[in-house]
Amino acid sequence: MDHIDAVRTPASWVVVGLDNGGTCNNATVLDATGQFLVDQLVENPSLVQEGPESAVESLARAFTGILDLTSTPLSLVRAVGLDTPGPASADGVISSKGSTNFSQVSWHGFDIRGALESRLGLPVVYANDANAAALYAHHRHFGTTAMENSSVAAIVGTGLGGGVVESGKVVSGAAGMAGELGHVQIPLHGVLEDGQPIPLCNCGFEGDVESIASLTGIAKNLLPYWLTRFPDHPLAAEPLGRAAKLLRGYGEKQDPLALAVFGQQARAIGKLFTIAANFTDPAAYFLGGGVVEAAPHFRQWFLDTVREHTQLRREQRAAATFALVPDLDMAGARGAAVAALDTVPV
Fold first, then answer.
1. Confidence of residue 6 (pLDDT cuts 50, 70, 90)
2. Superfamily name with CATH number, domain 14-135+330-341
3. Which of 23, 184, 224, 254 is deepest in the core (most CB within 10 A)?
4. Distance (Å, rounded) from C-alpha 343 to C-alpha 15?
């Protein structure tokens, strides 16, 4: 274990990636050469609603389970990558106000990274789930040139997560809050209709990306407006929260109301990527989340609409690519593993 191979081989050592979610953990193993040893979801219940003690034990079970599944000796594990939903500090301390997944008081200010590190007796590296997905998308897309490239990723879910990757590494920031792309305020001209109310975000901002491009934004801001324009729509009879979740199915069927809503989301992300183009000028723009899990024709339409509304200079358009986050259900665990791999000395 003390010996570090000068040349990495698949048998040299491994890192483990653990993705902690609201209902399940997902685990993976990455060898020293950057090859994943599993190519499917490997899940167990996350038990986060039972509090930190149960949740940390469940993560430990996910760790031992993935080693058993891949016949990997514990002695080969050099580090563990952990990702969770935020908000949390760069060191994996859950916000003092908790969050959607970590709502119990026992979670407020809880050091989930440190607790897992103590439980496993191995170094644990932390990333939030959107950063982990962004990191995996970057490394999957660029491969051997990942460390020479930069990217920005927007992950559309209940909120809007994101990640900024520079020279192959996530930019975390002084307080660990870099890449909170959902809370970037954008110009609303060309996004909203005349007379459409300014969207409000749960964070208190007006007109940030998450207030439009998220499930919460649909239910809170977009659907209430568009249902006034389509009062006879079947979704008008549904509670807003349920209607928001059903909307993607209508979008896949080219429903006019749904396309109006998702068109606004795509234009909002285009505005965000335009800001990114002038701020970091990335080599790639990645899009992930529920829209990626949709029917191929719909997700391609959405990505094309984002691209059309990202205002790039001619030189940037020639240099940059737009792509979907691959293997989205496994992206968190895989990105967490990539982050851990990067910390192992060679």
1. low
2. ATPase, nucleotide binding domain (3.30.420.40)
3. 184
4. 10
